[in-house]
Every structure is written in structure tokens, then in C-alpha cells.
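Input sequence (175 aa), recorded before submission:
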Amino acid sequence: MTRRGKLAYALVLGTILTISGYSLVKADSANTTQGTVNDPLVTKSYVDSLLKGAGQATQPQQPTTPSTPAPTPSTATGITVVQLKNGQTLYAAAGSELLVRTGKTVAVSIDENGIPDATAGKDLAPGAAVENNHLLIFPREGRGVKAAPKNTQDIYIMVRGSYSVVNEDGSKADQ
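Predicted structure, C-alpha cell format:
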């Protein structure tokens, strides 16, 4: 093939590739119309109304068991910081999560079932030490944490979800 033939071949091939690429782009843009489900247009006021509505959501109250008082719902931000005093027990409602930040605590349960420690990937049996900064998830009520017998530090716990704090005598603690 001569040099002129190679040049003509490259020119024809380039033209074919350009036309087919343009056709694909044109066909793809023809399938999406602005303002449809595939390509929605959204106004700032619409987004603002969605965000405003999301902030007003309320949490449903969890049913209580006879051994634990009614749970306290968390704040609008979703996380509440609770200071637990020696002799107090924090009971988490079903679906709640907590993370002990400071102090020494142990797991409590009204039955023999444990508490899932998502950080360690194991269940904590009642009476087991709770590691600080480990995420605990509560599948049902009647489980929580309390101050360890030899705790001397302030106990601060981050809670997401509903919970209740009970004094040693069984009365609900003031929060």
C-alpha cells in the first residue's frame, strides 16, 4: 500500500469512528429529557423543604418492660451524652446504640443474654467489662451498662436512641 493509500485509509477510518461516536452520544442524550425521572431538576426551595421536614421527625416510643422505666428519647441530633453516676444503671431501648467514653462499666441484662459489641465482634455477657470507645448495639430492652464496682472516674456515655437511667433503689434518675 502506498503512502497516499495509507493516508486515505486513515482518513476514512477516522471519519467512520467520529460519526459512530457522535451517533452514540446523540442517541444517549435523546433518551434523557431534562426534568424527568432520569434527569430531574430540583429547586433550592424543594431541597430546603425536604431538609426542614427531616429535622421534625419524631421517634416512636418503645414499649417498656416491667423492670425498666419508660425510655428517654435522644435529642434532635441523634446523640445524647449521659453522665452515669456510681450506683446507676443505663438501660437502652431496643435498637439503641451506646459508646462508653470514660470510666469503668460492666454489662447488665435482665436475663442471661448478652449485648452485641460491634467493635470487638462478640457478645458481652452480663457482668463483663465494657471496653471504652466500643459500639454496643441493643437488640431488645432490659440490657444496658452500669458503673463497675471499683470505678473511680466520671462515666460519660454517648447514646443514640432511647434509654433510661435507674438509681440503685430502682427509681428513675433525673436527667
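Checked by second reader. The longest helix spans residues 3-31.
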